[in-house]
Amino acid sequence: MTVVSTLDIDGLTAPEYRAVMDELGVEERAEPGIYLHLTAPLESGFRVVEIWDHKEGFDRFLEARLAPAGEAVGLQRQMVITVKPLHNFFAPRLNELPALIGSLPGAPGAPSVK
Length: 114
Fold this sequence. Notes:
Mean pLDDT: 90
Number of strands: 4
Strand content: 25-35%
Low-confidence stretches: none
CATH architecture: 2-Layer Sandwich
């Protein structure tokens, strides 16, 4: 069953997020089973939303890659994780996103955000 995972990470900064992403290497070597990853700032931290082909794939990624990457960069943050079945996905302008992504602050190669 396709699922949506949400990770709310308290106190996470943009440079810390980038460090974890770089350590993971997912932008060059995506985890099998992931369809979508997006990140948005919260008042204190960040929210990561992902769509996975099934919960077991997300769980494996969390244990085998995300936790070790966080440890490798010295990240210790409270995280609230929820995983729910995907109810709907609507993206009528999805083909326009590649041109936008490079200009986003968290994009690979973009100037770092302080």
